[in-house]
Amino acid sequence: PKALENKEFTLHFQPQIHSFSERLLGFEALLRWHNAELGDISPKEFISIAEESRLIQPLGMWVLKSACRTLRKLNRQYRTDFYMAVNVSGVQLYADEFVDQVLAVLSETNVTPGLLELEVTESVLINRELRAMEKLNSLYRCGVRIALDDFGTGVSSMGLLKDVKITTLKIDKTF
Questions:
Q1: Which among 102, 71, 104, 109 has a CA at the least distance from the CA of 88?
Q2: Minimal CA–CA distance to 137: which of 111, 118, 159?
Q3: CA-CA distances (angstroms) from residue 88 to 95, 113, 140, 161?
Q4: 112, 145 in Cβ contact below 8 A?
Q5: Of 8-17, 40-49, 128-137, minimum mean pLDDT range
Q6: pLDDT 10s digits, 92-120
Q7: 3-class secondary structure for 73-95?
Q8: Residue 118's CB: how many other CB atoms inside 10 A?
Q9: Residue 20: CB atoms within 10 Å
């Protein structure tokens, strides 16, 4: 719980490049944790713990706000319309206030909804949890981009595409 307070988390921004034109389109915000005693801690180690303890809620909001603030600064400074992709965990998505929180962050940071892309993994939607799909579709209708990551790893695959409105499909490398 102290890692967020102690500012041990940082965001790294991975460029998103158009494959044909090689033009920079935007960035994906990647969360990293460095603890003075433990060193660098892999997201594979800490994300599941954060989800189980429900600390993913404040951590996820910090990521969303920080990523949107950075995006606003970049777009203003360079007079561009880059987008920012932010990963969302199932725990965040299932929270009743998720849609309102996302829209509030967009308003607070003055980021156009179409410049935010929320990434969820196929596994988050594998049970076709209706409320989760409705939340994503609601955000999509507000202009937020929705990316389905790790596609092809779950059993629902193709059928899921007709129920959830997405703008980006990221196919898993094992597919």
A1: 102
A2: 118
A3: 11, 16, 14, 18
A4: no
A5: 128-137
A6: 999 999 999 999 999 999 999 999 999 99
A7: HHHHHHCCCCEEEEECCHHHHHC
A8: 23
A9: 6
